[in-house]
Amino acid sequence: MNQVLERGAALPATPVEPYSCIMRHKHEQPEGEALTEAARSAFERVGEQWTDMRAQLFNVIVGLDRPASAYDIADRFSEQRGRRVAANSVYRILDLFVAANIVTRVEVANRYLPNVHPGCVHDCILLFCEQCGRITHLDDDNIATSIRGAATNAGFRPTKPVIEVCGLCEACSR
């Protein structure tokens, strides 16, 4: 039986397909060590230090099969380190990661996922399936430009639009 996820709800018990990426523009999508190196480089470019703890936490996030809450990430990180790591420490690092664009926060689900192209600065569109929890990452520069333009025309200076769409993924809508 499928269950609709609400903001802050627990992850589904059954694994879901990892987030996917549909792109309208071209950029590199590193994996494994290349992704970690791209994240380190982007993190240091904004003036932050890439410490062992931060590197380990980033690798925990990359190793997850789906977006996860800060508490889920803290639990996995604690397991890996062999001792409890406070959730507030994880939250502080996650805030730094989000600010540096190496991790994306899915606002509607209160979950985090690695930015699969940390060197690329643009507005992502996240499609959140309310039934299975799957996140689809969609890059569409036309939509992002239109939203930024509409905000600017309304006298608003957008800094980082968060575009999230809730609904049902293709598999759940069948």
TrEMBL record:
Record: residues binding Fe cation: 123
Lineage here is: Bacteria, Pseudomonadati, Pseudomonadota, Alphaproteobacteria, Sphingomonadales
| Origin superkingdom | Bacteria
MF terms per GO, please? DNA-binding transcription factor activity; transcription cis-regulatory region binding; zinc ion binding
Give the similarity note: Belongs to the Fur family.
**What InterPro entries does the record point to?**
FUR, Fur_C, WH-like_DNA-bd_sf, WH_DNA-bd_sf
Copy out the cofactor comment.
Answer: Binds 1 Mn(2+) or Fe(2+) ion per subunit.
Query: What is the name attached to this protein's record?
Result: Fur family transcriptional regulator, zinc uptake regulator
- What does the entry give for GO biological process? negative regulation of DNA-templated transcription; regulation of secondary metabolite biosynthetic process
Annotated Zn(2+) binding sites: 129, 132, 169, 172
Q: Name one GO cellular component term.
A: cytosol
Position of the signal peptide = none
In the UniProt record, does the keyword Magnesium occur?
no
